[in-house]
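Reviewer 2 asked us to include a model.

Predict the structure of this chain.
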Amino acid sequence: MAKPRSTVVRAFATTISGVLLLTACGAGSRTSSSTATQVECDFPAPSKAMSVNVLAYNSSAIDPFTNTMVKSCSKNQVTVKHEPIDFAGQVQKTTATLAGDTGTYDIVETYGFVIPKYAQQQKLRPLDDLVAQFEQKYGLGEISKAMRQAMSYDGKLYGLPMQAQMYVMAYRKDVFQSLGLKPPTTFAELRDAAGKIQQAGQIKYPVALPLLASNDIGVAYDAALGSLGVNYVDTATMTPNFDKPQAAKAFEELRALLPFMDPQVTTFDQPRVQQQMYNGSAAIAIMFSGRMNDLTQASNSRFSQQFAFAPPPSVAGGDVLYNTLSVDGWSIPVNSAADPSMLFEMIAASVSADASKASVPAAYPARDGIVTAASSPYAEAAQVSIGKAPPAEPHPWTSRISNDTRSVVADVVLGKTSVADGTAQMQQIAAKILAEYKK
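Predicted model (structure tokens):
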């Protein structure tokens, strides 16, 4: 059964007020370490010199917080270390570091989508006691309650919110104006606009979406399904929804966009999509908001002044957009040997008021009231996007179903598997996973 999505999301948007919400993801940061902000990170010195290892993928929205932590908290005999890594690498290393009795990393960047899984497995330390201890010192009461909820499971906080993202549509306003086009509000309008751009003869593949077969394509399918008002799972009956008509329609709508996208689209992550917009080989892109600021930088593209922003379209009309909403934050692995209080002060410092203000417009920080239309060229589009996004499914089985069905999604989108066979396979995979939670 579909949830009352509009009610849930509007309440969510009201709670966060002017701050915008997301996970994630991909690599390709254009944010250098010079953007790090010096903030107070006042933890007691340990008894001997030590290193703190931080695992966080590189993107323009994440780097300001990571860089601030490294710069501000490398003190008192402690060296904070962070090595550049892409999102796929982070996913692999997160699994590895949380698997054993001891891990490689002391602080891990996480997001709401995976919190239920790792929290249920008791891989992450609950942070409620540390929030209470340091709330006044680091002004943690200013962090959005809705974002805290997104990083919680079973009533406990497992990730200190850092920032959030949602889908935003970027488009070439010069191309649109020359052809008399308006930003599309449905997939049908998106196809119509793309067709007219193709016919004009300047851009062969005008639409760019991150549909990387090993990651993004699963998120894209979930966004399409959510726009049609259906979740992965009917939680009342604990049955998958891939046998619903909307599950097939989500595939059909995604496949209908393929004639307007590069044939190698399933090899494109978000940085590759950015590159298509940078070099002018695409005129419309839908990706996470954390990628938008890069488009506005003259050093990245000669078209930087021609990019405009709008909410993503809905798949078939209605209030719920082709969208996904996720919150990023910092978690402390249970298997870290470092002092949890020291680690928490580091992550609290990295999301301090000064650090959060400095992250705009590259990021949408978790603190209430920081992001406004005046501070970000795409804030208005993102604010609309937030209010019309499908709600998250905060269950431990959600990420497992997404991961285990991703290859099927790729095969269906590419036409290697029929829609009927693909949805049947996904129904079977999801039912098997859910059976474990019915015991």
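DSSP finds 17 helices and twelve strands in the chain. The two ends are 22 Å apart (CA to CA). We have added this to the supplementary material.
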